[in-house]
What we know:
The complex is a heterodimer.
Chain A: E1 2-4, E2 11-13, E3 31-41, E4 44-53
Antiparallel strand pairs in A: 1-2, 3-4
Chain B: E1 6-17, H1 23-38, E2 47-51, H2 64-71, E3 77-81, H3 87-100, E4 106-113, H4 132-140, H5 144-159, H6 163-176, H7 191-196, E5 199-201, E6 204-205, E7 214-222, H8 224-231, E8 239-244, H9 275-287, E9 296-299, H10 304-313, H11 322-327, H12 344-348, H13 352-368, E10 381-388, E11 392-399
Parallel strand pairs in B: 2-3, 2-4, 9-10
Antiparallel strand pairs in B: 1-7, 1-8, 4-7, 5-6, 8-11, 10-11
Helix pairs in contact in B: 1-2, 3-13, 5-10, 6-10
Amino acid sequence: MAVQLEKEGLIVLGQAPKGILAKDLKVGMRMQLETDVLYREDGVDYMVYVWAPAVQNEVVGGAK
Amino acid sequence: MSDRDLVVLGVGMHPWGKWGRDFTEYGMVAARAALKDAGIEWKDVQYVAGADTIRNGYPGFIAGATFAQKMGWTGARVSSSYAACASGAMSLQTARASILAGFCDVAMVIGADTTPKGFFAPVGGGDRKNDPDWLRFHLLGATNPAYFALFARRRMDLYGATSEDFAQVKVKNSLHGLNNPNARFRKESAVEDVLNSPVVSDPLRLLDICATSDGAAAMIVTSRAFAEKHLGSLKGVPRIKAVSTSTPTYPQTLLEMPDFATDSSAVVMPPARGFKDSICWDAYEEAGVGPEDLSMAEVYDLSTALELDWYEHLGLCAPGEAEGLLRSGATTIGGRIPVNPSGGLSCFGEAIPAQAIAQVCELVWQLRGQAEGRQIENAKLGITANQGLFGHGSSVIVGI
Lengths: 64, 400
């Protein structure tokens, strides 16, 4: 999904966390930055940033 | 005729399809067709401007010299241009610059490709952690249709576009390309066909998205002096009036492939014209014309929804009005400003380095009245619009 940072104007593409589907998302929703496992290799987790629906009242920074 | 006009003496194509043969085979067919159309010999060509792709391995493999060798070495000068989907326009621009600078009189512009099955993806193995094209696949799984879908979703949110609107673009283009002998897909599509085709990247379906194709296109461009000597009169002969190979201006605030972030607009205000607007308007300014002067446009319909975006970038209508313009019939052959009379990528699929050249070929056939089965009456001026990965713009204006 494409998320726009409110102050900076930057749009950053990112995946949603596992389990969040297109039907769970709406244009204009507030999002927050999290991390998730991109893939696992030889017992090592390789991490990636993801955009997750913002938890109420816990929005840090502010992005939509 | 302006002193900076370039005469298009001949055009030729190899039909688009999917055979997996050596791309130079296709290129030779297009080159010979263009030479025959121009009424000149291969040995008359002084400059070969090749359009590159990396899909065949690496750019050097598909350079201008590749075609010069295949046609038979003559000592001609060459250039090789890589601008992804815009490679054809960039190679035309190098030929144009060479002719207008007086270095040569006759140039061949040529592009050909053999594409792999399925989605385009970075070529070559191994990690390339500094390459945004590799990273977008590795980190996000963001194929090209994922970007097309974001742009489609944007139209839906901003302007209320619907899947039916997008399907109507396919319906129009499938009609346009029905009798085009160079088109790969020659079959009428109804709205239901599009809506019933499988989802590729929500909201876009299989028939909303262009295929990847094999194909080749070539043209012979010359100086005015050579063409006058060769033809006698230049009346009714198509001329290149503008070639725009624009890049974005900072800050680029709309997401473009293969980047997965835009520039920040926190410090510098976005330019009055965004990237895709500027591609078209730079061409208008160079030719001294405007959208009201056009008889037709060939635009890069990588997806149905992206064709609608181009209507607005070209100034055929105001932002948000493209769906209305389409539904009015204005962009259908017979309408006020037909778009993609060739059938567009919808009927061709994409053969990357050939595509921007193919767009110009169509304008030339239309301007000469040779577009059998899809002719626009009284066509006088046309524009192409196209955009390549990595910030490569491409727009060409051809008129008689």
